[in-house]
Amino acid sequence: MKKVIIALGFLVIGSCGTSQSSKQSVVTKTFDIKEYAERITAKDLKSYLYVFAGDDFEGRDTGEEGQKKAAEYLRTQYRKMNIPAPEGVEGYFQTIPKSFFRGDIKASENVLAFIEGSEKPEEVLVLSAHYDHVGIDSKGEIYNGADDDGSGTVSLLEIAEAFQKMKDEGHGPKRSILFLHVTGEEKGLYGSKYYTENPVFPLANTIANLNIDMVGRIDKHHEGEEKENYIYLIGSDRLSTELHEISEKANAEYTNLNLDYTYNAANDPNRFYFRSDHYNFAKNGVPIIFYFNGVHEDYHKPTDTPDKIEYELMAKRAQLVFYTAYELVNREQRIVVDGEVEK
Fold it and tell me: What is the pTM of this model?
């Protein structure tokens, strides 16, 4: 178990007649990162997701009323957690004009929340998930998108809450963390494209992007109890070997998931590396990790519902993101980019 020891100095003053003497005593306070990671719970994730992937949000189609409700829900949660929007982002929303989208897609918005670093606030880690989905079909069936990507969205909320609790108790991150909920992923990665072309913080100061897209289910390749403790990682070693090493170490020390790199292969015919929001960071030279459970029989169907989510496993996966993020924002030097950009 990893512990960080913080020394707190207290001045003790005693007096005798007209003379005074002082001495320094040291009291140590133990800080255990695991206590904060364990605040990311299956119970809380389930509570969030049954709302977020419920019928009231009408499948969260980009620019439509259900997506607007989802954006408002996210803003409300960050306000409850006392996590502010970044300076210059009014009301947590980064508005994407209709002119940015192709076709008849309406204006939409990314949702941004921010925890400022204590020592190197200008260096920023971006944690992302897309909160849109595909809406309602011609038969009136709602595509709730519980796994895609309600799972990533609510994981981000839980991770943010854990980091804010740390900060409230005097253990805030050295570098800053941006929680970026992007819209328009299902339409063509529009929300992340807009952010990287109009970044709130310079991409040159963005140390990495950890992107969570579908982390609540088990695919057919991992069915059976001995195989279920897994997560696919994509892209961790493509731009920074240090990022890959940090991820591996965090998992070995804390979560002990089976890290499956099948879809990270350069010749992967699915090309998942290019198919979620991390790619808009990667193509700009920002190191990334894409966390993914693989596709399943309910992918992009009305049957992708909250009752089918593996909440305990989902919590463990979110904790891995938390531990990896913690190391990235608190290490002495930012990770080095030593790989080549793929476009």
Answer: 0.92
